[in-house]
Structure formats: C-alpha cells, structure tokens
Design goal:
With 45 residues, the chain is α+β, with helices and mostly antiparallel strands. The chain has one domain. The protein has 1 helix and 2 strands; from the N terminus they run E-E-H. The protein has a two-stranded antiparallel ribbon. A hairpin with a 5-residue loop joins strand 1 (12-14) and strand 2. The longest helix is centred in the middle third of the chain and has 5 residues, at 23-27.
C-alpha cells in the first residue's frame, strides 16, 4: 500500500487510443496529479 504523501512508482497504462501513457509524462510538467482507483464496475463496494 502506498502511504499518503509518498512518491508513486512509475506507472505505464494504455490510453483510450491504445497509446502508452506514463505517469512521469505528467509529473515532469511540475503539476499536481490525482489518481483515483475504483472497484470493478457492477460489483459491490
């Protein structure tokens, strides 16, 4: 589990167009970024 305020490890995810989207692409711009994770659709919780 990542602690609040801790640095996030590099993430590379697939964008909606199939391109690779890296967390560092946004962090390098010096802007704050909020990551939100939610449970799988149609599940309790």
């Amino acid at each position: 589990m990542i602690e609040i305020g801790a640095a996030v490890p590099e993430l590379v995810l697939e964008g909606s167009g199939g391109e690779a989207v890296k967390l560092s692409d946004y962090a390098a711009k010096g802007k704050k970024l909020v990551l939100f994770f939610y449970p799988k659709d149609s599940t309790s919780g």
